[in-house]
Design a protein that fits this description.
This protein has 469 residues and is mainly beta. Helices cover 7% and strands 32% of the residues. The chain has a single domain, classed as 6 Propeller (Neuraminidase). The protein is globular and about 55 Å long. It has four helices and 28 strands.
């Protein structure tokens, strides 16, 4: 072997060894590499308690881990972005090293937020509140760099109404929540108005887009499913819809009181096939293996790219056997095998001693990412901040998940760390795990300034962590 080939091979080995230890890099930077001059990522929830429940994370990643969308108040990511104090949506392409603005350039105080990206990275959906316009949900096509309006709020926006919590499938189908506080719902015929929230999947990729952002006509939903939900609490988590990669299944938060007409006022997790429209059945996800519905509220549902797995958070004490401690824990439901597992535990099996939220899962169900306030999930977690963790449910790679009979086949890792393994000196939030990337890629927001070198802006940033220890 030539010296050059040996050197290249040696560099490759070193790079591979480093990736196995996990590498952290900052995503919220300009194409030229400039750090943001304002907060990026999950900062809306960070600044306002109410928004925490409405905001799915402010960061989302494509299935291959290459494209990441995030919201930001920074004005130095795109030329012409002069809308001071506004929120915009940006797309970072890791392979090209580029950052582009997805939301429209504006000089007014507008809010473009809650970005999500389709598994194939072809579409981005986000929410918009623009002065003089009715709030709307928009979809951006990456290849053509064009955007259109998927749905608008009802006339007379009063601060309680709005379009939030979108999700988008690989064919461009958009799922969103629409909150309306009274009067007649401004939706196509056939919608069941319940005085609160709706979920409307757009199953025809381009049929329902309204390119005229100044009109109130972008409300036709084509082949649609309507899911009614009502939760009067001031800090309601909302329905938080999530859609499978092919757009065939939606998971969401709902009340059996309204869906099954029973006396249960606990928020549960449901799934429903989009092809079933208004005649379809609801599948209760948040239940024990014996069929008992969760006895505490369930939030933050996320359905896998394949639609087989649904993850969510709950403080319920009756979903799995064993002890409970009153904190929000993370659960994984296999819709095919009809099983439920708790995954917010340490490698040794200790239950998280702090709240866990915002889970996401890979397509094969092996890896689950989530944020947690717990200090006992990994050794050396002494900083006292919210961190991002990944649970490996198949450590030996034999294809069997959570198999306790095969010995040490599971592990929990902290990924909100620097490339050298140092824990963040501030909290991290809202993880989004790439569905099919290998090694594992997790995007998240963080206030920490020690995850990468040169982080001197004093603002929340967006990071990716590649690989596990």
């Amino acid at each position: 072997m030539s010296f050059l080939r040996m050197a290249i091979a040696g560099s490759w080995v070193i790079a591979m060894a480093a990736s196995l230890q996990g590498q952290t890099s900052r995503i919220s930077i300009s194409t030229s590499g400039a750090e943001g001059d304002a907060n990026s990522g999950w900062f809306l929830g960070h600044e306002t308690n109410w928004w925490y429940w409405q905001n799915p994370g402010g960061v989302a990643i494509s299935a291959d881990g290459n494209r990441i969308v995030f919201e930001s108040k920074a004005e130095n990511f795109a030329t012409g972005d002069a809308d001071s104090n506004s929120t915009d949506v940006f797309l970072r392409e890791r392979s090209a090293g580029t950052t582009i603005q997805v939301s429209p350039l504006s000089t007014s105080t507008s809010y473009f937020f809650d970005p999500v990206i389709s598994p194939n990275g072809s579409y981005v959906a986000y929410q918009a509140i623009v002065p003089g316009e009715i709030p709307y949900t928009a979809r951006y096509t990456v290849s053509s760099q064009t955007r259109c309006v998927v749905n608008r709020d009802v006339p007379g926006y009063d601060g309680l109404n709005g379009c939030y919590q979108a999700a988008v499938a690989s064919d461009g189908a958009v799922v969103f929540e629409h909150h309306y506080s009274g009067g007649s719902a401004h939706f196509p015929t056939g919608y069941w108005w319940n005085g609160s929230d709706y979920i409307c999947p757009i199953t025809e990729a381009g049929a329902s887009c309204d390119t005229d952002q100044g009109s109130n006509s972008g409300t036709a939903c084509g082949n649609s499913v309507t899911i009614a939900y009502s939760r009067p609490a001031e800090f309601s988590p909302g329905p938080s819809p999530s859609v499978s990669g092919d757009g065939s299944v939606v998971s969401f938060v709902g009340l059996t009181y309204y869906i099954f007409c029973d006396a249960n006022a606990v928020a549960q997790i449901f799934a429903r096939a989009t092809s079933s429209c208004t005649n379809g059945t609801y599948e209760l996800i948040s239940k024990s293996s014996g069929g008992a519905a969760a006895n505490q509220d369930c939030i933050d549902p996320y359905i896998s790219n394949t639609g087989q797995f649904v993850v969510f958070a709950s403080a319920a004490s009756n979903l799995v056997s064993g002890s409970s401690n009153g904190y929000l824990q993370i659960y994984v439901v296999d819709r095919t095998a009809n099983t439920i597992r708790r995954v917010s535990v340490s490698t040794g099996g200790a239950l998280a001693n702090g709240d866990c939220r915002k889970p996401s899962i890979t397509a094969n169900g092996r890896y689950v990412a989530f944020e947690s306030e717990a200090t006992n999930l990994v050794s050396g977690d002494t900083e006292g901040h919210t961190d991002i963790f990944v649970r490996d449910r198949d450590l030996d790679g034999n294809g069997t998940l959570d198999n306790p009979t095969l010995g040490n086949t599971v592990a929990t890792y902290r990924v909100s760390v620097s490339s050298s393994g140092a824990g963040g000196n501030q909290s991290s939030f809202g993880p989004s795990i790439a569905a099919t990337a290998s090694p594992v890629v997790v995007a998240f927001s963080s206030d920490a300034s020690n995850l990468v070198s040169g982080d001197t802006n004093g603002f929340m940033d967006v990071f990716v962590h590649v690989g596990l220890p």
